[in-house]
């Protein structure tokens, strides 16, 4: 602007200095924001993973305490142990 004669050189230099100062302050704020975001994200992920570990440990304890299938019931019966004629109806006349 001083080249065009619209502003004195001294005032133009002052404007440039203030613009640089504002630019540096803005850059510092952005750097600080990004560092805090990284720290916050890391802390959030650590807390999330700790809660996941606790949850699945609790699930494991519940499964140990209350199994889905009792031990005395086999998954596939190997042999039928019903006595012969156990379902026959007896009638007396």
From TrEMBL:
GO CC, alphabetical = cytoplasmic vesicle; plasma membrane
Q: What is this protein called?
A: Sorting nexin protein WASP-binding domain-containing protein
Organism of origin is Albula glossodonta
The GO terms describing molecular function are: phosphatidylinositol binding
Q: InterPro entries, per this entry?
A: AH/BAR_dom_sf, Sorting_nexin_WASP-bd-dom
Gene Ontology biological process: cleavage furrow formation; endocytosis; endosomal transport; plasma membrane tubulation
Boundaries of each Sorting nexin protein WASP-binding domain copy?
Answer: 1-65
Domain of life of the native organism:
Eukaryota
Q: Which Pfam families does the record cross-reference, listed alphabetically?
A: BAR_3_WASP_bdg
